[in-house]
């Protein structure tokens, strides 16, 4: 599959690149960012996937999180895709910020008119890794995933739905129980229809409840002053309770004074890179 390089910038001895390609799953042109650390010049490196939140593109994480130095030091290739298909000319895709463009929610839509293009789950778990494994010096056996908000939800469900695929998972302020929050109800009813039993397949809390057990060591950071926490959009307590009941190891850190922004992410990103490197470089 042809890749078109959009940009390339030297950063901490490595290269931050952005590429465009024609996506089979999403039936549109998609961009993704990829950081190649210095170690990638001499051998295959582990791959760490970042999933961004509502309204984001591939640019937000690479320009605001400050992850490059830690990724360079630990020798991790970091991939950050866009958050939805783009330019599909679907009626209503650009009307609101929390549904449609920039809000793919990492599900495979089953409802018209979304089901043809809005297949972000399959794109992130299958098509994009195959593309990366074919074109870049990564070790397909060493792959992990993390994300923020809607992308934190995406990271958790990708890891929980694919036992053994990812070595580790972490999240910043994830939407933990989308079937019960306004963002999730809006997105899932639009993409998946009114049968709420279908929603549970993309809900981290429900996936944990149905989980026979997992080797994943989950790390979650949550800002205590996050407006979306107090608004009931994130519901981490429900996820923690489910993990506790299933004896699934999770480290949940409530960070005093931090909000939902990239200032929060930038503060703790090195901890998350280190968390993944522990498993990817084992």
TrEMBL record:
User: By its UniProt entry, which Pfam families does this protein fall under?
Assistant: Esterase
Which residues constitute the catalytic centre? 149, 226, 260
Localization recorded for this chain is: Cytoplasm
Which top EC class is named for this enzyme in its record?
A: hydrolase
Extract one GO molecular function annotation from the record: S-formylglutathione hydrolase activity
- Per the UniProt record, the source organism is Delphinapterus leucas (Beluga whale)
The entry's protein name is S-formylglutathione hydrolase
Family of this protein = Belongs to the esterase D family.
The UniProt entry, under Gene3D superfamilies, shows: alpha/beta hydrolase (3.40.50.1820)
Kindly list the biological process annotations in GO that this record carries.
formaldehyde catabolic process
What's the stated role of this polypeptide? Answer: Serine hydrolase involved in the detoxification of formaldehyde.
List all membrane-crossing ranges: none
Q: Which GO terms describe its cellular component?
A: cytosol
Protein EC? 3.1.2.12
- Classify the source by domain of life: Eukaryota
